[in-house]
Automatic annotation (TrEMBL):
Residues 24-187, 197-370 form the EngA-type G domain. InterPro entries: AAA+_ATPase, G_ENGA, GTP-bd, GTPase_Der, KH_dom-like, KH_dom-like_a/b, P-loop_NTPase, Small_GTP-bd. GTPase that plays an essential role in the late steps of ribosome biogenesis. GTP 1 binds at residues 30-37, 77-81, 139-142. Associates with the 50S ribosomal subunit. This is GTPase Der. The keyword DNA-binding does not apply. Keywords: GTP-binding, Nucleotide-binding, Repeat, Ribosome biogenesis. It comes from Amycolatopsis acididurans. PROSITE patterns: G_ENGA. GTP 2 binds at residues 203-210, 250-254, 315-318. The lineage of its organism: Bacteria, Bacillati, Actinomycetota, Actinomycetes, Pseudonocardiales.
Amino acid sequence: AEFAALDAGVDGGQEAEEAQLSQPVLAVVGRPNVGKSTLVNRILGRREAVVQDTPGVTRDRIAYDALWNGRRFTIVDTGGWEPGASGLQGAIAAQAELAMSTSDAVLLVVDASVGATTTDEAVAKVLRRSKRPVILAANKVDDQRLMAEVASLWSLGLGEPQPVSALHGRSSGDLLDKIVEALPDAPREGTPTAGPRRVALVGKPNVGKSSLLNKLTGEQRAVVDSVAGTTVDPVDSMVELDGQLWRFVDTAGLRKRVHTANGTEYYASLRTKAAIDASEVVIVLLDAAEPLSEQDLRVLTMVVEAGRACVLAFNKWDLVDEDRRYQLEKELDRGLVRVPWAERVNISALTGRSVRKLAPALRTALESWDQRVPTGQLNGWLSDLVAATPPPVRGGKQPKVLFATQAAIRPPTLVLFTTGFLEAGYRRFIERKFRERFGFEGSPVRINVRVRE
Ligand code: GDP
Ligand code: GDP
């Protein structure tokens, strides 16, 4: 039952996870040759060989990371989707439909030197139904002479046309301002967590939390006072490990050993939850001398659901003999199936054995927690994977994975944009392969699926 709960943490709670989606998606649509790729390159601020002379040529890379004024978003060039509908107009209308259902905002690019064509009008008609914001770019306005043409694009009924020259860069900053304004709010990049990284030390009663904290702090209580400019919550402990200062959160209870006195399990579990929520990385202390318990699994569930990085510390290793070690390995294979990504460290708070291995493990876990795979790299890998092993057919239909983006870090969160539901088993397969390719040891990875409505 505990494993089912863990599973629900990964597969369920979709809505909550959507809410914390932090990298919005902009889809770019328009007829061939209006300058979509040139504009995408302009927005990305680099010249990349995605401009094709032949309209309709499939581009294998269609999603990119963009950054403007500190706001990060994913830009999707729908030219790469190559909708198979008959006729150009139908194809582009289908493309617009798809764009609407997979993005947070749509950028329609029109060639101002040509004016609105019937195809542009058909696309505009589709986009006017969109619940999402639509920005209208009037491209190829290389100079002032085309401004009358630009004004005529009001007729598309999508609001003010934004003149731009993708080729020369004219007004592209203004267009980007409009785009960023239209996208949903996302946290700004480049604000590192202030001060030492926050660690929670959790585990069932008597597993050795106080002992470990005492071992770690040992003689170095003085550190607390010598840290200039850090306000330390009196319930936290500052600990120097491996030349780095760490903030162990909510340790007051551990020091005072209140847990045995009025330690109802409910109270203990609230404390554990609070400590996990306040942390970035969690040391889950497990008793190596005893079988893995329900309580241990509950704690692990909390960590996974909270999306925190994690290190598993098997304490009381001094009590483990050859027989027990063998038995433990078997237990763990079954017991820890949902956190195979967590590093295991065998320690003894009593003797101090291997306690110094904790800091490197914490660092690795946090690096994974902070890691972001660039969208281009992610899609290159994903398209190969999906081509080799497509999602299982469901109700006679083969869901297609259109593209993916790593929408968030802390915890790393992937969003897959698909044409159909992906089974939990297939998502787990993707996660496993993702980890094989990109690592992420010590951190949970969330995979959300956005199905085209
Ligand atoms: P896409 O098919 O919509 O992706 O269009 P491309 O980006 O491949 O551009 C089609 C052609 O229009 C290319 O020859 C571009 O150099 C040209 N082009 C794109 N933007 C501009 C622009 O702002 N001004 C002018 N004069 N030409 C442009
Ligand atoms: P807490 O309730 O998780 O804070 O656990 P404590 O730190 O109070 O430890 C509970 C008991 O386990 C105490 O009697 C400790 O001495 C003992 N203990 C803690 N760590 C170890 C260890 O590594 N080896 C052994 N043999 N005993 C330990």
